[in-house]
Request: fold
Amino acid sequence: SQQGEEDPQALSIQEGENATMNCSYKTSINNLQWYRQNSGRGLVHLILIRSNEREKHSGRLRVTLDTSKKSSSLLITASRAADTASYFCATESPSNYKLTFGKGTLLTVNP
Amino acid sequence: GAVVSQHPSWVICKSGTSVKIECRSLDFQATTMFWYRQFPKQSLMLMATSNEGSKATYEQGVEKDKFLINHASLTLSTLTVTSAHPEDSSFYICSARDLSGSAPDTQYFGPGTRLTVL
Reply:
């Protein structure tokens, strides 16, 4: 089954607005990680939240995790044009540390 | 944070040839590295787990004889695409965890290698 399904698949906002992306998963996890990928480039690690954590902040990023609903959200506040990228959530298996990626959300921030 | 590099960043080859991609952990040792493949506008799919000093473990549906993985040292894993065909054209990305670093849970990704098979 597909882990880490993000929604929306695409999101277009104006600079300065907040962007919220959601991720759902189906099996138990060790942690959930969010990554950013600019077109044709590698992945940049944004934030990791462990299964026993509920919320985490890093700069303009805020991540929440609800293990009862098997879902997570990534909030980017005061977005900038440079935030334009694809964002992926990835869940780490507690048994073998493998990451399973969702399909991603393409965020476009218009100047 | 920890740095993972890949070489080459892109490669174009003829159908039937073999291509080797290197993944290096630059400032830490990695007993385990992971290889992913990403098709255009799609997500990353785990291909295999590379284990230093032992055989790689492959995900279901990934041909181990086609995608040869060697993890001969604690800082280097290689992926060789043997007898490449156009359908192997993809973006190949590796990752590793720095278990002795400040964020041992984090997987750090290389910049990726774009393979185009003509």
